[in-house]
Structure formats: C-alpha cells, structure tokens
Amino acid sequence: MRIALSLSLAALLLASPAIAQEAQGTLIDVNGAEAGTIELSQGEGSVSITGHAMGLTPGDHGIHFHTTGDCDASAKFESAGGHFNPGEHQHGLENPEGVHAGDLPNLTVGDDGMANIELTSDTISLVEGEEGYVFDEDGTALVIHADPDDQMTDPSGNSGDRLLCAVIEAPAQ
C-alpha cells in the first residue's frame, strides 16, 4: 500500500506543472550603486514579491514591472521599456479598462529612506506558458519611480522618474 501511494504521489507531481519557481534581482540606482534586492516566489495563482529598497525619499512611490530586462543606469532606466503589459490593457489598479500585468500597489518608504517590499501579484507568472510570464525573450525589470502611482492614468500613472531598477533573473542552477 505504501509503495502504491508513493508511486501515485510521484506520478501526480510529475503530471502537475511546476509552480514552486523563484526569481530574484538586485536593485540599482541611477548611479549604478546597489540599492536593495527583490525576490519573487510563484505560488498557486500568484507571485509573492519581497525585498527591500534604500536611498529613496520618504512617502509613496510607484513600482511596476517593465517590459525589458535591462537596467542601464546611464539612460535612467529607459532601457527597461514601458510597463509589462502583454494583454495590451490600460494602466492602473483602479482603471476600469486596466490593468497592466506589471501594475502594483504603491510602495511606502519610511523616514529613513528604506522600504520593505511585501507585495503579491496575480497578473504575472514565473511559470512558462502562463499569461504574464516574466521570462520572455527580452526579460523583465522591476522599476521604482519618484512619485506615487495614481492607479488610473495611462500609460504610467504619473509616477515620475525611474529611480531604482532590477533585472528579474532566475536563480543560478
């Protein structure tokens, strides 16, 4: 009985799509200096986004996934492209025509210039073949902006300059 149960469990695990995937990134500022870390973990139907950011002004800041995994500090992170939006939706968590897959709630930075990142997204995925897959041919970046996102205005929520950027990468095998 125990052998049959083990074989059945193993067959079920092999037949199920992998959902325990992870990703990571190092945030850099516009001078190219390290300014935090980001970790992503795929759960059942959503991705947990954790980490920390430093060197920011206190208050709320827009934070989004962007279309290209390229954080060229000399170009103020314009190399990361626009917001990650494979479904071609409008911008904003409060937009009835939205949301971009890369839209996230604002990040709150403390008086010390630090922010703990603890977010969840059900519009991105670390599982190949799923909608919102972040490891497409040109990758994806996470960008923190100077101003809060108004969660309505297309295409960027009036979130201002790009201050920090991290290329999202799969962990080394």
Automatic annotation (TrEMBL):
The keyword Signal applies. CDD domains: Cu-Zn_Superoxide_Dismutase (cd00305). The keyword Signal applies. Residues 36-168 form the Superoxide dismutase copper/zinc binding domain. GO terms for biological process: superoxide metabolic process. Keywords: Signal. GO terms for molecular function: copper ion binding. Residues 1-20 form the signal peptide. It holds the Pfam family Sod_Cu. Belongs to the Cu-Zn superoxide dismutase family. This is Superoxide dismutase family protein. It comes from Devosia sediminis.
